[in-house]
Amino acid sequence: MPAALWIAHVKVTDAEAYAKYAAGATKAIADHEGVFIARNGSYEQLEGNDRARNVVARFPSLQKAHECYYSDAYQAALKFAEGAAERDLVIVEEIE
């Protein structure tokens, strides 16, 4: 079963509220066997919308990534991001 990547591009508009989201999301991701492989590092915007916060987490499977997003813990954290950021989030299955 291939691993999956959770890729987020974010423009934070309320740092205090978003920090609360990040704390809860970090725990939810870890609880679903997710590990961060990129988080707020240097980046180069080549195309599309520039959003300075770029996060990539790897999960053991697409199903685990999906379960994380819809978990009670992540959904509770997500409430802090609402109105605090412009976000794009996608789950992508890795090539085996």
From TrEMBL:
Q: Which Gene3D superfamilies match?
A: 3.30.70.100
**Pfam families (alphabetical):** DUF1330
What domain of life does the native source organism fall in?
Bacteria
InterPro entries in UniProt: Dimeric_a/b-barrel, DUF1330
**Domain named DUF1330: residues:** 4-94
What is this protein's record name? DUF1330 domain-containing protein
Please report the organism this UniProt entry assigns to the protein: Litoreibacter arenae DSM 19593
